[in-house]
Amino acid sequence: MNELELLAEKESEDAATVVKLISQGKTSAQIHAMTNIPPKRQREIKSQWEALLSNDRWAAHRSKLLIGAADEHYQSIINGLYEVIDDAEQQSPVDYKTKKEALREIANVEKMRIDFFQKAGIIGQQSLGDDLAKMHEEKERITEMLKRIAQKHPEFRKVIATEMEIMNGEVIVTRTVGENE
Question: What's the total number of domains in the chain?
Answer without folding.
Answer: 3
